[in-house]
Protein backbone atom coordinates (compact mmCIF):
# COMPACT_ATOMS: atom_id res chain seq x y z
CA UNK A 1 0.00 0.00 0.00
CA UNK A 2 1.19 3.50 -0.72
CA UNK A 3 1.58 6.15 1.95
CA UNK A 4 -0.89 8.44 0.21
CA UNK A 5 -4.24 8.59 1.96
CA UNK A 6 -7.66 9.60 0.76
CA UNK A 7 -9.25 11.94 3.31
CA UNK A 8 -13.00 11.55 3.16
CA UNK A 9 -15.88 10.01 5.12
CA UNK A 10 -16.16 6.22 4.81
CA UNK A 11 -18.71 4.92 2.28
CA UNK A 12 -18.94 1.15 2.59
CA UNK A 13 -21.47 0.64 -0.20
CA UNK A 14 -19.64 2.37 -3.08
CA UNK A 15 -21.13 0.95 -6.33
CA UNK A 16 -18.46 -1.40 -7.62
CA UNK A 17 -17.31 -3.87 -10.23
CA UNK A 18 -13.84 -5.40 -10.31
CA UNK A 19 -11.35 -4.42 -12.99
CA UNK A 20 -11.82 -6.48 -16.16
CA UNK A 21 -8.96 -8.61 -17.53
CA UNK A 22 -6.89 -7.08 -20.27
CA UNK A 23 -7.63 -3.44 -19.44
CA UNK A 24 -5.23 -1.15 -21.32
CA UNK A 25 -4.28 2.47 -20.64
CA UNK A 26 -5.36 4.28 -17.50
CA UNK A 27 -6.62 2.15 -14.59
CA UNK A 28 -10.28 3.13 -14.98
CA UNK A 29 -12.99 0.85 -16.31
CA UNK A 30 -16.65 1.18 -17.22
CA UNK A 31 -19.60 -0.47 -15.53
CA UNK A 32 -20.52 -3.46 -17.70
CA UNK A 33 -24.22 -2.54 -17.92
CA UNK A 34 -23.73 1.12 -18.82
CA UNK A 35 -25.52 3.36 -19.41
CA UNK A 36 -27.14 3.38 -15.98
CA UNK A 37 -29.76 5.92 -17.06
CA UNK A 38 -31.35 5.55 -20.49
CA UNK A 39 -33.58 7.73 -22.64
CA UNK A 40 -36.99 9.09 -21.58
CA UNK A 41 -36.41 8.32 -17.89
CA UNK A 42 -39.46 10.27 -16.68
CA UNK A 43 -42.54 11.91 -18.17
CA UNK A 44 -41.55 15.09 -20.07
CA UNK A 45 -37.81 14.43 -19.78
CA UNK A 46 -36.12 13.07 -22.89
CA UNK A 47 -32.60 12.60 -21.55
CA UNK A 48 -30.72 12.70 -18.25
CA UNK A 49 -26.94 13.28 -18.30
CA UNK A 50 -24.18 15.44 -16.70
CA UNK A 51 -25.49 14.77 -13.20
CA UNK A 52 -24.07 14.53 -9.69
CA UNK A 53 -24.71 12.09 -6.86
CA UNK A 54 -23.73 11.64 -3.20
CA UNK A 55 -24.11 9.15 -0.38
CA UNK A 56 -27.08 10.12 1.83
CA UNK A 57 -28.50 8.34 4.86
CA UNK A 58 -26.92 5.00 3.89
CA UNK A 59 -28.28 5.24 0.33
CA UNK A 60 -27.63 7.68 -2.52
CA UNK A 61 -29.14 10.93 -3.70
CA UNK A 62 -28.45 13.05 -6.75
CA UNK A 63 -29.21 16.14 -8.77
CA UNK A 64 -29.82 15.35 -12.41
CA UNK A 65 -29.77 17.37 -15.58
CA UNK A 66 -33.06 16.50 -17.19
CA UNK A 67 -33.52 17.71 -20.76
CA UNK A 68 -37.25 18.32 -20.97
CA UNK A 69 -39.27 17.44 -24.06
CA UNK A 70 -39.31 21.15 -24.94
CA UNK A 71 -35.49 20.99 -25.08
CA UNK A 72 -34.92 23.12 -21.98
CA UNK A 73 -32.70 21.58 -19.29
CA UNK A 74 -33.62 21.64 -15.65
CA UNK A 75 -32.58 19.94 -12.40
CA UNK A 76 -34.41 16.95 -10.95
CA UNK A 77 -33.82 15.08 -7.70
CA UNK A 78 -33.09 11.35 -7.84
CA UNK A 79 -32.79 8.56 -5.29
CA UNK A 80 -31.06 5.20 -5.35
CA UNK A 81 -30.50 2.28 -2.99
CA UNK A 82 -27.34 1.09 -4.75
CA UNK A 83 -26.06 4.10 -6.74
CA UNK A 84 -26.88 2.30 -10.00
CA UNK A 85 -30.67 2.06 -10.31
CA UNK A 86 -32.23 5.49 -9.91
CA UNK A 87 -35.74 6.83 -9.49
CA UNK A 88 -36.52 10.48 -10.12
CA UNK A 89 -38.99 13.02 -8.82
CA UNK A 90 -41.37 13.94 -11.63
CA UNK A 91 -41.26 17.62 -10.68
CA UNK A 92 -38.28 19.94 -11.04
CA UNK A 93 -36.46 20.87 -7.84
CA UNK A 94 -38.62 23.61 -6.22
CA UNK A 95 -36.03 26.22 -5.34
CA UNK A 96 -36.98 29.21 -3.24
CA UNK A 97 -35.05 32.39 -2.65
CA UNK A 98 -33.71 33.54 0.70
CA UNK A 99 -36.97 35.45 1.33
CA UNK A 100 -38.99 32.26 0.82
CA UNK A 101 -40.38 33.11 -2.64
CA UNK A 102 -40.44 30.39 -5.32
CA UNK A 103 -37.47 30.59 -7.68
CA UNK A 104 -37.35 28.88 -11.04
CA UNK A 105 -34.51 29.84 -13.39
CA UNK A 106 -35.37 29.81 -17.12
CA UNK A 107 -32.95 26.90 -17.53
CA UNK A 108 -30.47 25.03 -15.36
CA UNK A 109 -27.84 22.49 -16.37
CA UNK A 110 -24.75 20.48 -15.40
CA UNK A 111 -25.52 20.41 -11.65
CA UNK A 112 -22.90 19.40 -9.09
CA UNK A 113 -23.68 18.37 -5.53
CA UNK A 114 -21.14 18.96 -2.76
CA UNK A 115 -21.41 18.67 1.02
CA UNK A 116 -19.47 21.27 2.99
CA UNK A 117 -19.76 20.89 6.75
CA UNK A 118 -23.45 20.07 7.38
CA UNK A 119 -24.91 21.59 4.24
CA UNK A 120 -25.37 20.25 0.72
CA UNK A 121 -24.73 22.72 -2.10
CA UNK A 122 -26.02 22.44 -5.64
CA UNK A 123 -24.03 24.38 -8.22
CA UNK A 124 -25.17 24.63 -11.82
CA UNK A 125 -25.22 26.79 -14.95
CA UNK A 126 -28.20 29.10 -15.47
CA UNK A 127 -29.25 32.30 -17.19
CA UNK A 128 -28.12 35.55 -15.58
CA UNK A 129 -28.32 37.80 -18.64
CA UNK A 130 -26.12 35.11 -20.16
CA UNK A 131 -24.83 31.75 -18.98
CA UNK A 132 -23.58 31.99 -15.43
CA UNK A 133 -23.27 29.98 -12.24
CA UNK A 134 -26.28 29.33 -10.00
CA UNK A 135 -26.10 27.99 -6.47
CA UNK A 136 -28.48 26.65 -3.84
CA UNK A 137 -28.26 24.91 -0.49
CA UNK A 138 -30.23 22.29 1.36
CA UNK A 139 -29.86 20.32 4.55
CA UNK A 140 -32.75 17.89 4.04
CA UNK A 141 -33.34 17.67 0.25
CA UNK A 142 -36.84 19.05 0.83
CA UNK A 143 -36.20 22.76 1.13
CA UNK A 144 -33.78 24.18 -1.44
CA UNK A 145 -32.68 27.77 -0.90
CA UNK A 146 -31.22 29.53 -3.86
CA UNK A 147 -28.19 31.70 -3.06
CA UNK A 148 -26.75 34.73 -4.82
CA UNK A 149 -25.11 33.99 -8.15
CA UNK A 150 -21.39 33.93 -7.36
CA UNK A 151 -20.20 35.46 -10.64
CA UNK A 152 -21.22 37.74 -13.47
CA UNK A 153 -21.62 36.07 -16.92
CA UNK A 154 -20.23 34.20 -18.66
CA UNK A 155 -19.22 31.17 -16.73
CA UNK A 156 -19.99 27.43 -16.70
CA UNK A 157 -18.74 24.29 -15.00
CA UNK A 158 -18.45 25.29 -11.39
CA UNK A 159 -17.81 22.94 -8.50
CA UNK A 160 -17.11 23.56 -4.81
CA UNK A 161 -14.35 21.90 -2.84
CA UNK A 162 -15.80 19.64 -0.12
CA UNK A 163 -14.31 21.69 2.69
CA UNK A 164 -13.18 25.23 3.36
CA UNK A 165 -9.55 25.91 2.49
CA UNK A 166 -7.66 28.43 4.60
CA UNK A 167 -11.00 29.39 6.18
CA UNK A 168 -12.88 30.11 2.93
CA UNK A 169 -15.22 28.24 0.62
CA UNK A 170 -13.35 27.42 -2.59
CA UNK A 171 -14.98 27.16 -6.02
CA UNK A 172 -13.53 26.01 -9.32
CA UNK A 173 -15.13 27.54 -12.40
CA UNK A 174 -14.60 27.98 -16.11
CA UNK A 175 -15.24 31.47 -17.55
CA UNK A 176 -16.70 31.12 -21.03
CA UNK A 177 -18.87 32.85 -23.61
CA UNK A 178 -22.56 32.49 -24.42
CA UNK A 179 -22.07 29.89 -27.16
CA UNK A 180 -20.13 26.68 -27.62
CA UNK A 181 -17.05 28.29 -26.12
CA UNK A 182 -13.89 27.52 -28.14
CA UNK A 183 -11.58 28.34 -25.19
CA UNK A 184 -11.49 27.89 -21.45
CA UNK A 185 -9.29 27.51 -18.40
CA UNK A 186 -10.12 26.48 -14.84
CA UNK A 187 -10.03 29.22 -12.18
CA UNK A 188 -10.31 29.15 -8.39
CA UNK A 189 -12.28 31.70 -6.33
CA UNK A 190 -12.70 32.02 -2.58
CA UNK A 191 -15.52 33.26 -0.38
CA UNK A 192 -15.93 33.63 3.38
CA UNK A 193 -19.74 33.55 3.17
CA UNK A 194 -20.81 32.31 -0.32
CA UNK A 195 -21.90 35.89 -1.11
CA UNK A 196 -18.66 37.75 -1.77
CA UNK A 197 -16.15 36.02 -4.02
CA UNK A 198 -12.56 37.03 -4.65
CA UNK A 199 -8.90 36.02 -4.50
CA UNK A 200 -9.42 34.67 -8.01
CA UNK A 201 -6.58 32.48 -9.23
CA UNK A 202 -5.84 30.67 -12.46
CA UNK A 203 -5.53 26.93 -11.82
CA UNK A 204 -4.84 25.36 -15.20
CA UNK A 205 -5.23 26.17 -18.85
CA UNK A 206 -6.10 24.02 -21.83
CA UNK A 207 -3.50 21.33 -22.19
CA UNK A 208 -0.51 21.04 -24.40
CA UNK A 209 -1.71 17.55 -25.35
CA UNK A 210 -4.19 17.36 -28.21
CA UNK A 211 -7.07 15.69 -26.31
CA UNK A 212 -7.46 18.82 -24.15
CA UNK A 213 -6.15 21.43 -26.56
CA UNK A 214 -9.36 23.51 -27.00
CA UNK A 215 -10.66 23.92 -23.45
CA UNK A 216 -10.99 22.25 -20.09
CA UNK A 217 -13.52 22.49 -17.29
CA UNK A 218 -14.09 21.27 -13.76
CA UNK A 219 -15.79 17.97 -13.21
CA UNK A 220 -16.36 16.05 -10.00
CA UNK A 221 -15.76 17.78 -6.66
CA UNK A 222 -12.04 17.37 -5.89
CA UNK A 223 -11.18 14.49 -3.53
CA UNK A 224 -8.90 15.38 -0.62
CA UNK A 225 -5.76 13.28 -0.31
CA UNK A 226 -2.61 13.61 1.77
CA UNK A 227 -0.79 14.60 -1.46
CA UNK A 228 -3.26 17.17 -2.74
CA UNK A 229 -6.71 17.39 -4.32
CA UNK A 230 -7.45 14.63 -6.81
CA UNK A 231 -9.46 16.18 -9.62
CA UNK A 232 -11.31 14.50 -12.48
CA UNK A 233 -12.06 17.13 -15.13
CA UNK A 234 -13.04 17.32 -18.78
CA UNK A 235 -10.79 18.23 -21.67
CA UNK A 236 -11.91 19.02 -25.21
CA UNK A 237 -10.30 18.59 -28.59
CA UNK A 238 -11.58 19.84 -31.93
CA UNK A 239 -12.08 17.66 -34.99
CA UNK A 240 -13.68 18.21 -38.38
CA UNK A 241 -16.81 16.59 -36.88
CA UNK A 242 -16.85 18.89 -33.84
CA UNK A 243 -15.64 18.74 -30.27
CA UNK A 244 -14.62 15.53 -28.46
CA UNK A 245 -14.91 15.55 -24.65
CA UNK A 246 -12.64 13.25 -22.60
CA UNK A 247 -11.93 12.83 -18.89
CA UNK A 248 -8.59 13.92 -17.46
CA UNK A 249 -6.93 13.75 -14.05
CA UNK A 250 -4.78 16.15 -12.03
CA UNK A 251 -3.64 16.63 -8.44
CA UNK A 252 -3.79 20.16 -7.01
CA UNK A 253 -1.79 21.47 -4.07
CA UNK A 254 -3.59 20.83 -0.80
CA UNK A 255 -3.11 24.27 0.75
CA UNK A 256 -2.93 26.33 -2.42
CA UNK A 257 -5.04 24.49 -5.02
CA UNK A 258 -4.30 27.02 -7.77
CA UNK A 259 -0.95 25.23 -8.05
CA UNK A 260 -1.10 21.99 -10.04
CA UNK A 261 1.22 19.34 -8.63
CA UNK A 262 0.57 16.61 -11.19
CA UNK A 263 -1.35 16.63 -14.46
CA UNK A 264 -1.79 13.49 -16.49
CA UNK A 265 -0.74 13.95 -20.10
CA UNK A 266 -3.06 11.15 -21.24
CA UNK A 267 -6.83 11.19 -21.00
CA UNK A 268 -8.15 8.78 -18.38
CA UNK A 269 -11.25 7.94 -20.43
CA UNK A 270 -12.32 8.98 -23.93
CA UNK A 271 -15.52 8.17 -25.88
CA UNK A 272 -15.34 4.55 -27.05
CA UNK A 273 -18.68 2.91 -26.31
CA UNK A 274 -21.89 3.33 -28.36
CA UNK A 275 -23.55 5.41 -25.63
CA UNK A 276 -20.57 7.79 -25.61
CA UNK A 277 -20.00 8.00 -29.37
CA UNK A 278 -23.63 8.25 -30.44
CA UNK A 279 -26.31 10.50 -29.01
CA UNK A 280 -27.73 14.01 -28.93
CA UNK A 281 -24.14 15.32 -28.95
CA UNK A 282 -21.83 12.52 -29.98
CA UNK A 283 -18.36 11.90 -28.54
CA UNK A 284 -18.90 13.52 -25.17
CA UNK A 285 -18.03 12.13 -21.76
CA UNK A 286 -18.45 14.65 -18.98
CA UNK A 287 -17.55 13.79 -15.36
CA UNK A 288 -19.68 15.37 -12.62
CA UNK A 289 -19.30 13.32 -9.41
CA UNK A 290 -17.54 10.54 -7.58
CA UNK A 291 -18.57 8.28 -4.74
CA UNK A 292 -15.42 7.19 -2.95
CA UNK A 293 -14.27 5.35 0.13
CA UNK A 294 -10.95 5.88 1.92
CA UNK A 295 -10.91 2.39 3.48
CA UNK A 296 -11.21 0.31 0.32
CA UNK A 297 -9.84 2.98 -2.06
CA UNK A 298 -12.81 2.41 -4.36
CA UNK A 299 -13.85 5.35 -6.52
CA UNK A 300 -17.04 5.30 -8.64
CA UNK A 301 -17.06 8.07 -11.24
CA UNK A 302 -20.36 9.33 -12.71
CA UNK A 303 -20.30 10.95 -16.12
CA UNK A 304 -22.67 12.22 -18.76
CA UNK A 305 -22.41 10.37 -22.07
CA UNK A 306 -23.20 11.94 -25.46
CA UNK A 307 -25.54 14.47 -23.76
CA UNK A 308 -27.99 11.56 -23.61
CA UNK A 309 -27.12 9.08 -20.84
CA UNK A 310 -25.36 8.65 -17.51
CA UNK A 311 -22.36 6.34 -17.41
CA UNK A 312 -20.48 4.90 -14.45
CA UNK A 313 -16.79 4.00 -14.29
CA UNK A 314 -14.57 2.64 -11.54
CA UNK A 315 -11.00 3.13 -10.42
CA UNK A 316 -8.83 2.39 -7.39
CA UNK A 317 -7.37 5.32 -5.47
CA UNK A 318 -3.76 4.07 -5.31
CA UNK A 319 -3.74 3.08 -8.97
CA UNK A 320 -5.19 6.30 -10.35
CA UNK A 321 -2.90 8.46 -8.18
CA UNK A 322 0.11 6.45 -9.37
CA UNK A 323 -0.98 6.67 -13.03
CA UNK A 324 -1.50 10.45 -12.88
CA UNK A 325 1.90 10.94 -11.22
CA UNK A 326 3.71 8.58 -13.54
CA UNK A 327 2.33 10.36 -16.62
CA UNK A 328 2.46 13.90 -15.27
CA UNK A 329 3.54 16.71 -17.57
CA UNK A 330 3.26 20.23 -16.15
CA UNK A 331 3.28 23.55 -17.98
CA UNK A 332 4.60 26.79 -16.53
CA UNK A 333 1.08 28.09 -15.90
CA UNK A 334 0.20 24.89 -14.00
CA UNK A 335 2.92 25.46 -11.43
CA UNK A 336 2.31 29.19 -10.92
CA UNK A 337 0.04 30.39 -8.07
CA UNK A 338 -2.14 31.83 -10.85
CA UNK A 339 -2.15 35.49 -9.86
CA UNK A 340 -1.08 38.13 -12.37
C1 LIG B 1 -20.77 22.00 -22.90
C2 LIG B 1 -21.86 21.93 -21.85
C3 LIG B 1 -22.17 20.50 -21.48
C4 LIG B 1 -22.28 19.59 -22.67
C5 LIG B 1 -21.13 19.80 -23.63
C6 LIG B 1 -21.25 18.96 -24.89
O1 LIG B 1 -20.61 23.30 -23.38
O2 LIG B 1 -22.99 22.55 -22.35
O3 LIG B 1 -23.40 20.48 -20.81
O4 LIG B 1 -22.26 18.24 -22.24
O5 LIG B 1 -21.06 21.16 -23.98
O6 LIG B 1 -22.42 19.28 -25.60
Overview of this structure, please?
This protein has 340 residues and is mostly beta strands. The protein has one domain (28-335): Glycosyl hydrolase domain, family 43 (Tachylectin-2, Chain A), CATH 2.115.10. 5% of the residues lie in helices and 44% in strands. It contains three helices and 22 strands. Strands 6-10-9-8-7 form a five-stranded mixed sheet, with no helix packed on it. 49% of the residues are buried. The structure holds beta-D-mannopyranose (BMA). Beta-D-mannopyranose binds at residues 50, 109-110, 180, 245, 281, 284, 286, 304, 307.
Q: What is the radius of gyration?
A: 18 Å
Q: Within the CATH hierarchy, at the fold level, what is the topology?
A: Tachylectin-2, Chain A
CATH superfamily: Glycosyl hydrolase domain, family 43
Look at the helices and sheets and give the structural class: mainly beta
Q: What is the total number of structural domains? A: 1
Give the strand order of the largest sheet, numbering strands 1, 2, ... along the chain: 6-10-9-8-7
Count of individual helical segments:
3
> In the CATH hierarchy, what is the class?
Mainly Beta
Helix content: under 10%
List all distinct small molecules, including ions and cofactors, that are bound in this structure: beta-D-mannopyranose
Average pLDDT works out at 97
What string, H for helix and E for strand, traces the elements in order? EEEEEEEEEEEEEEEEEEEHEEEHH
Spans of 5+ residues with little confidence (pLDDT < 50)? none
Q: What would you say the CATH architecture is?
A: 5 Propeller
The quaternary state of the protein chains shown equals: single chain
Q: Span between N and C termini?
A: 40 Å
Outline: globular
Strand content: 35-45%
β-strand number: 22
The description of the largest β-sheet is:
5 strands, mixed
Amino acid sequence: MSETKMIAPAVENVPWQERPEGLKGAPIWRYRDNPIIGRNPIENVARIFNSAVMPYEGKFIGVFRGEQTNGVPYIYLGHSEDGIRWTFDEEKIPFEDEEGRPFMPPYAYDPRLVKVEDTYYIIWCQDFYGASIGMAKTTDFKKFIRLENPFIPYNRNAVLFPRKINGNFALLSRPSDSGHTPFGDIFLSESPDLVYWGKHRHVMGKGSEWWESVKIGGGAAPIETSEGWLMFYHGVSSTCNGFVYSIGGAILDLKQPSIVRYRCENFLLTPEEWYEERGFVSNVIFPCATIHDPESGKIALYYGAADSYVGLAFTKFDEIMAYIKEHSVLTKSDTEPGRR
